[in-house]
Amino acid sequence: MKLIDIILIILFLISVGVVIWYLFGNSPIFEEALIVLMLSSILVIYSKLSKIEARTELFGRSFINLANDFKEHIKHKK
After folding, report:
1. C-alpha span between 50 and 71 (Å, rounded)
2. d(C-alpha 77, C-alpha 51), whole Å
3. How many Cβ atoms are within 10 Å of 61's Cβ, its own excluded?
4. CB contact at 8 A, 3 and 43
5. Residue 4: is its pLDDT beyond 80?
6. What distance in Å separates the CA atoms of residue 68 and residue 53, rounded to the nearest whole number?
7. How far apart are CA 26 and CA 33, in angstroms?
8. Is the pLDDT of residue 77 over 70?
9. How buried is residue 40: exposed, middle or buried, by Cβ count under 10 Å (0-12/13-18/19+)?
10. In whole angstroms, what is the distance from residue 7 CA to residue 19 CA?
């Protein structure tokens, strides 16, 4: 498990706790509960986007290597 996954789980648990606290009263105002939910959502989106960016970078390098292989194949064919 990566550090970001642990942080996201902790933020999710805090978010659930704040929502339950808000529902049962004597709690922070609605906007504060919403801020906690939004922050955890933003971090989840950021972590997913960074994983997608790493994958697309890997695919880009793979296609460049594939193009170089085809160029080498054409050179050997002549």
Report:
1. 32
2. 39
3. 10
4. no
5. no
6. 23
7. 13
8. no
9. buried
10. 18
Instruction: Please state the rounded mean pLDDT for residues 39-52.
Output: 82
Q: Domain coordinates of the chain in residue numbers?
A: 3-77
- The DSSP code sequence of 5-68 is HHHHHHHHHHHHHHHHHHHTSS---HHHHHHHHHHHHHHHHHHHHHHHHHHHHHHHHHHHHHHH
Question: Which is it for the CA torsion 52, 57, 58, 59, positive or negative?
Answer: positive
Whether pTM > 0.90 for this model: the answer is no
Residue 26 main-chain phi, psi, to 5 deg: 50, 50
pLDDT(23) > 70: yes
